[in-house]
Specification:
The complex is a heterodimer.
Chain A: H1 3-16, H2 18-55, E1 60-65, H3 76-85, E2 90-105, E3 108-117, H4 121-125, E4 129-132, H5 137-141, E5 146-149, H6 151-158, E6 167-170, E7 173-181, E8 195-199, H7 200-206, E9 214-219, H8 225-240, E10 246-250, H9 251-294, H10 296-304, H11 309-346, H12 354-381, H13 384-389
Helix pairs in contact in A: 1-11, 2-9, 2-11, 2-12, 9-11, 9-12, 11-12
Chain B: H1 4-7, E1 14-25, E2 28-40, E3 45-50, H2 56-63, E4 71-76, E5 79-80, H3 86-95, E6 97-100, H4 112-123, H5 127-140, H6 156-169, E7 174-178, H7 186-201, E8 205-210, H8 213-216, E9 221-226, E10 229-235, H9 240-250
Parallel strand pairs in B: 3-8, 3-9, 6-7, 7-8
Antiparallel strand pairs in B: 1-2, 1-4, 4-5, 9-10
Helix pairs in contact in B: 4-5, 4-6, 5-6, 7-9
Classes of the chains: A alpha+beta, B alpha/beta.
The complex binds adenosine-5'-triphosphate (ATP) and magnesium ion.
């Protein structure tokens, strides 16, 4: 008897008890579907985060100064010296301090964040100007009262119609708008489009000559980024004499870390979903045991007619495997569909992984084989006459 | 196992030597078969009779390789069955033996045709060939147009005929029938017996188990069992009626 024949018999016996087959499959369906949903969402999440971070430039190094109380502070000259002394590692630098402010145009006002930057900031962060220009060297040098606004601000304060010479009142002081940034996040409130850039010299004065706590550095080559971070740390240590006063991190480090976090999260979630797969497998074994017992007489008849042990065995194993495979296929369809629905509702990107689908399918078939094997073996070992006499 | 037939030259088709079958009954033992020795030649029509519990079915199960004796020797077509492994016994059941059971033993969720096909599936025939042979076999028992019926959609007599078709489809050398008329009315029973007699005419070896002397009368040879022992083995005399009927059929 060949596989095709066993398969036909399996399909026949599945069809003859549809409800039971469905209930058997349910465990597998739920297990496979949840694995796929979770993997798709976690994949989507990590893709989102990565692409967000990557758009900011992977060769960006962030420097945070925490040690305000120290006897020595880190200012623009120090940073300039760092970059100028290490041209093989750094190409540009810019402050990047943000503060909450209120911006006004006539009677319309919006609460937003102002970021005090240098002329290199847009280049380092990979930002593009939609209209006008970005903050320039002269603006910084002369402490010009100019600003570049994000697309959300342009929408809110000017209804999108910004002209040359338009002004914004920031905390009461009037600033000329010299540029509008390209939209990066659908012009949503609180997003990277909800921002105003000022020359850092103007910005620090506005904040009462505050010192700069945040810097962006551009590394010459992503490959040397770890070395570049070391160089920056050495310089900072020389100044502060303590590692607690500053933090240096890179985008690629952050991406790596986040990927690690989402990876662990995925593993935990998939593990939980895997448990339901195993439970589904036990369901299959249960049903197979019952079905073997119920069909003992049938097994006796088949053996009396010349079925070898292997033929009985393969009939039941294939029956179990095709039950779970059918459950697996339904689970994959349900899982992918639900993942997209969930993505819609939660406004998340959904990235179904082909390998997750393959693995889920493989695992469900394997579960069927493994859990079908024991009852099948039990059936095949029966003495023909004992099986025939079974009531 | 057609190879076995070569060695059948000079050997009986079936040879039982001092067969015992013992079932433990608590502290006691039950001797279902108590030293049965029996030889059956090719082409014979043998009835095994005896009262209920005399060991007829036990005997047939051993002949049919469905059960193993506690002790004794059994040669089927000259081969020692106790030395065959499980797969060889399955092959012997598949090729050499055809069973007709009192309770039909059809698989309920398979159609008549599919039931008849089963022995051929386990013989490894291809679907087309299987279908054709199964159809022919069903036609032979007069059920050609019931091929697609499930057993539950057939009368008792029809079900028994399906089981006969199934026993015949593989063209076995021995037909084993355990009380084939037990569940049938006398007319259908007689039809089944006629059929068995005709099969014997056509060259099959038929072993018929019954507790009914009237039924046994159709056979050429009648073996009586009592308490697991053979108490008489008569040829011709008891089979006269059968022989007469068979001769009448054949003429
Ligand atoms: N599996 C078994 N376990 C214990 N005892 C058994 C078993 N099978 C048969 N017997 C006993 O063996 C004896 C012979 O049984 P068997 O079925 O061969 O009788 P039989 O001649 O076919 O009777 P009947 O005409 O009623 O079918 C009986 O006493 C029966 O109780
Ligand atoms: Mg009996």
């Amino acid at each position: 008897m060949n596989i095709k024949q066993s398969f036909k018999m399996a399909v026949k016996s599945l069809q003859s008890s549809k409800m039971r087959s469905f209930l058997t499959m349910l465990g597998i369906i739920i297990g496979v579907a949840s694995v796929i949903i979770l993997v798709s969402l976690v994949n989507g999440l990590s893709d989102d985060i990565t692409s967000n971070l990557q758009s900011a430039g992977t060769n960006t190094i962030n420097v945070m100064i925490i040690g305000r109380g120290g006897n020595r502070s880190f200012d623009a000259e120090d940073m300039e010296a760092l970059v100028d002394d290490n041209p093989e590692y750094f190409t540009a630098y810019s402050p990047g301090v943000s503060a909450q402010i209120t911006a006004k145009n006539g009677t319309v006002s919006v609460d937003t964040s102002a970021t005090a930057v240098g002329e290199a900031y847009a280049g380092i962060q990979g930002l593009e100007v939609e209209a006008g220009r970005f903050i320039g060297y002269i603006d910084v040098e002369r402490m010009q009262k100019v600003c570049v606004i994000g697309s959300y601000i342009a929408e809110e304060l000017f209804d999108g119609a910004v002209y040359e010479g338009s002004t914004v009142k920031i905390n009461g002081a009037s600033f000329t708008v010299i540029g509008v940034m390209e939209e990066t996040a659908d012009s949503v409130q609180g997003s990277s489009d909800d921002v105003i850039y000022l020359p850092w010299t103007t910005g620090t004065r506005l904040a009462g000559n505050a010192s700069i706590g945040r810097w962006s550095l551009q590394a010459r080559d992503v490959k040397d980024i770890d070395r570049a971070i070391e160089v920056a740390e050495q310089k900072l240590f020389l100044i502060f004499g303590s590692e607690d006063s500053y933090r240096v991190s890179s985008m690629s480090q952050m991406i790596e870390m986040l990927n690690e976090i989402t990876g662990t999260m995925a593993l935990v979630l998939v593990g939980i979903a895997g448990i339901s797969l195993v439970v589904g497998g036990i369901g299959i074994m249960n049903i197979m045991l019952v079905s073997v017992t119920e069909r003992t007489r049938e097994i006796g008849i088949r053996k009396a007619l010349g079925a070898r042990r292997r033929a009985i065995m393969s009939q039941f194993v294939i029956e179990a495997a095709s039950t779970s495979a059918a459950g697996g296929v339904i689970g994959i369809i349900v899982g992918v569909a639900l993942a997209f629905v969930a993505g819609r509702i939660l406004d998340m990107t959904v990235v179904p992984s082909f390998s997750a689908v393959l693995i889920a399918f493989g695992v469900s078939v394997a579960i069927g084989m493994i859990f079908g094997y024991y009852p099948a073996g039990k059936a095949a070992k029966l003495n023909p006459i004992d099986a025939l006499r079974y009531e | 196992m057609t190879g076995g037939r070569k060695s059948a030259e000079g050997q009986p088709l079936i040879r039982l030597r001092d067969i015992h079958k013992v079932y433990p009954m608590g502290d006691d033992e039950l001797h279902a078969l108590d030293g049965v020795s029996l030889e059956i030649e090719k082409n014979d029509f043998v009835a095994i009779i005896g009262q209920s519990g005399s060991g007829k079915s036990t005997c047939m199960n051993i002949i049919g390789c469905l059960d193993v004796p506690t002790s004794g020797e059994y040669f089927l077509e000259g081969r020692d069955v106790s030395r065959m492994d499980e797969d060889e016994q399955a092959a012997a059941r598949n090729r050499t033996l055809g069973f007709i059971f009192q309770q039909y033993n059809l698989i309920p969720k398979l159609t008549a045709l599919e039931n008849v096909e089963l022995p051929l599936i386990y013989r490894g025939l291809h679907e087309r060939e299987r279908r054709e042979l199964a159809r022919q076999s069903l036609e032979r028992v007069g059920l050609g147009e019931k091929a697609r019926n499930l057993p539950s959609q057939l009368s008792g007599g029809q079900q028994q005929r399906v089981s006969i078709a199934r026993a015949l489809v593989g063209n076995p050398s021995i037909i084993l029938a355990d009380e084939p008329t037990g569940a049938l009315d006398s007319r259908t029973g007689a039809e089944v017996l006629d059929f068995l007699a005709r099969l014997n005419e056509e060259g099959n070896t038929v072993i018929l188990i019954t507790h009914d002397m009237g039924v046994a009368g159709r056979a050429r040879r009648v073996v009586s069992l009592s308490d697991g022992r053979i108490v008489s083995d008569v040829r011709g005399r008891a089979g006269e009626g059968a022989a007469g009927a068979a001769a009448g059929c054949g003429a």
